[in-house]
Each structure stands twice: as structure tokens, then as C-alpha cells.
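Exam revision sheet. Question 4 asks you to relate a sequence to its structure. Input first:
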Amino acid sequence: MSQHEVTRARPQRWDEPFGDDMTEALVDRLLGVEPFGSMDPKAFPSATPLRAILLNDTRVIRYADGDLIVREGDYGGSAFLVLDGVARVALENLPEAKADRPSASGGKLRRALARLLSPPKAPETRGPTGLPPVLGPGVGARGDGEHATVFLQDVPAVLDRTRTARLGPGEIFGELSALTRSPRSATVFAESPVVMLEIRWQGLRDLMRYTPALAAHVDMLYRQNSLAVHLRETPLLRGLSAEALERVAEAVEFESFGSFEWQADHPATSELTPFERVEREPIAAEEGQPPGGLLLVRGGFGRVTRREGAGRRTVAYLGKGQQFGAEEIAAAATGEDAAPLRRSLHAVGRLDLIRIPTAVVVEEVLPTLNASQLTAWAASPTAEQPVADSNTLDFLVDHRLMNGTRAMVIDLDRCTRCDDCVRACAATHEGNPRFVRQGAVHDRYQFANACMQCVDPVCLLGCPTGAIHRDEATGVVAINDPTCVGCATCANSCPYKNIQMVEIRDPGGAIQIDEKTNQPIVKATKCDLCAGQLTGPACQHACPHDALVRVDLSDVSGLPSSVTR
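Answer key, C-alpha cells:
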């Protein structure tokens, strides 16, 4: 064996349990409460037994009065089960939970100086990171490190002025965020001392997979919570009374098209012709047919097309919060029947919709709109997007690039291939760049293989330990190196090939070797938007020709004019 290699055991899924304090005795107690008491241990495979899931994928957390358990807008990959005590979910905005988080420039400066003064001896050696909690008006902090909590200073006052719902023992919350890789939809805080079981989403996934009753229950909660939040946040429905909103909620239908794990089919569809790709996409609403209702996008992406000859022309794409069919239903405001759909809506990967029947829109919603609101509502969501030509829209949708909020776009006419961007990235990341200067090309623009910080980060799917996650403070998709077992699930799941598996070294520079297979141990790495840099992405600031920019492709109206010409 080379003197530059060391042997060690390969990391396994449960080498880093979710809770260090979980014991067999605690698992025994959990198996005596619902829903675990009704689960059949024989239904679980030997590789992931029920006891092992509870031991390694859950943790018991105790909160004091007023402690914020989750905050609206934060990202999280876990659900919570109330074991004891009472928690409250805020049904409206809670100002105390919305305090701005200041930038961690002090931490960034320390890390930058440490990197300058003590550069690593070899690439891919790592050190710990962390930021202190940030306080806002009406809140305090207690504890330190990972056990620090933020709490409401005056719980009775908050309860007096805020509509809340009670969460008692046996109730589950947080499953919406955990299962959809989305921000928390509401703030939850402890009304009294409360004991919670936190279940990371990998454990929740396995529990649901082998317990149909739990899967049905979580699905019901997901549907209910998703609907309530989405309807409250839809501008179109803000003018409705509580009674009217309830009638709308009772009438809506949930519809889903495509696959939740759409990335598995992406490589195959990329080999198809543009016509074949569009024809393979599930159709949620067909041009020429009656609208059947107003469609609200609650997740995923949709392609809006218009027939031209024997093919279809892409005229727009829709994401979460947008709507389809308003233009045609608006005709009913004048007493006419709703017009046939002028465009079709296709599911791009996965598309989750809320359908409000046309009759309900006409009866409950249209009377609340004045003439100017009606005009704006009818024209904006599905109107053709003139800022980008059809070829650009087709390219973005066909390559699923509209999923990216921070895509790296390189102007090849400006780029001189000097590689200053690559060297800057390497200098910032332990001598190893976190992106590859290659990727799909449209016109003169290259969409490089760098993490795009996706709206729907499918790389989170399947990670056995939760090492790849959304940072709860920033929303940035990041990799927690200590819990990464090098399984490459995230790299294989990323349809854009933006995650690389790299051989790791010890601080002395020796490559770490698996003692069982005698193969190098690898870990996942990707662009982290230079989280440790005061100036942001080093690649962009290092380019001497302004050829490299970061672009939000999820909103075509925000694209630079040069890209959409």
C-alpha cells in the first residue's frame, strides 16, 4: 500500500444517528405509543427494521414555554410528532418569527482569513462551520451550540392577538416541508413545556413505505395543510370572506401529473426530439377543451403550449403560485360561457395542481374583482411571455433549466477560456473546484455544470442520512460533510450532473482507503455559492471579462435581455 494512503471503515447510513441521546429504552417507549404501536415490525425489511429507524432516524427534543419549534419560511427536512405537552401553530404571520437574519460577515471574514493564513496541505480536507442564532424583537435565546433555541418572550400576548391551532399528543406536523423539499408553511411554538419526536424525512419515508395507514394519514395532512396555506396566499382569493374561502376549499380538487422522482426519466427524454419530448409530457389541460376550472400550481412546473400545424409551440412555463385558465373563465364575468382553452398545460417532470371548478370561480371569486383586477387577473399568468423567444423557452424547459434559481451562465463570446473562474473556485474550496466549465449550450450561452440551487432540488431524494439538505437559515442546498457516506445517491439523482464525488484525504494529505474494499473513500461535493466568502461566488468575481453571471431561470421575466434574444 502507498505511504500516501490510509485504511478505514467505509461510512454507513446510520454511522451518524439523528439523535445521539436515542437509546433502546426510548425506542421501547416509542413502540408503546401511536402511531408506532400499531405498526407491524414484520412489514419492515431486515435492512431497515422499525426499531433501527426509530433509533437512528428520530430524536426526542424537549422545548420550554414559548420556544419556536419551526419558523415560517425556514427550510427543514423533518416532521414532528407531539409526545407530551401542547404546541401552537400560527394561522397568520407571526412578526416575532419573521426577524431578518443578518449576514454572517464576521464568520465569513474569520473563515477567509483562516484559509489565507493556514491553507490546506492537500485538496478536500475539511473543517467545521456554524453560525450563531439571530434574535429579533420579542424573542430571546437560551442554550448554545446545536441545542440553542429561540423563544417568544410573551406567549400570552402572542396567543391573544394571533389566531392559532392547538397541537396535542399524537399529532404530526412539518410533513409538508419534509416531503416536498419546501419552506415551512407556518410557525409552530410551544405553549407549555412540550416533548417532541423529530423524524428526519428519510425515516418518515421508510415508515410510510411499510405502513399504509401512516402513509394515508400523512397524505391527508399534507393535502389539508397544503390547501389551507395555498388558498390563503393566493392573491386572487384574498378578497374572499372566511365563509367564502371555506366554500372554495370544500369544492377544490387536487390533481398531480408526472413523477415525484422525475429526474430518473430526464436522461432518456433528453435524447428525444423537441416534438417527442412535448408529446410525452402528461397533459393537465388541453387546448380547445372547456377549462373545467381555474388551475393553481402548488408544486412543480408546467409548460404552456399552443398548437401550430402538426406541432406545439412553447409560449410560457409556470411554477408554484401561478395559475392557468383565468383568461378563458374571465369571459364568464360578462355573462357568457367560459371560452375554450386557448393553450395546453403540460407537466414538466412533476406538476401538482389545485383545481377550483369554474362554477365556484364564477359564483365566489369573480364578484369580488373590480374591472381592473379582472383584466390583470385574466391576462397575466398564462399570457405568452414575450421576453424570451420560443427557442429559448423550449431550451430551458427541455433541459429542465427553469428549475434553477442561481444557474451559472457563461457568455461564450466573452469567455477567453482563461480558467480564472475555475482557479478562483479551487482556491476557495480546499484546492478543488466545485464546478465544471462545461454544460448545455444555447446560442452563445453555456449553462455550466454548477449547482443551480433548484426550486425542486431532487438531489435531496434518497439521501440515506440527510447529509444533503436545505440550510434552514439561507435556503441554500448544502452538504453536511460529516454525515455524507459517499453513496453517490445525490450525484446520481441530480439530472444536471452538478454534484461530483471526490476522493478525500486526511489533514496530512493521505488518501483515505476503505478497509473492506481497499478502494478510496469518496464524498459528495458541489457549488455552495461560496458561503464562506464575503463577496459571494468567487468564480463570478474572478472573471476578467464579465462573461460569467448567476441567473434565476425559474422566472423567465427576470432573465437578462441578452440571454433571451
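Marking note for examiners. Confidence is low (pLDDT under 50) at residues 100-106, 126-134.
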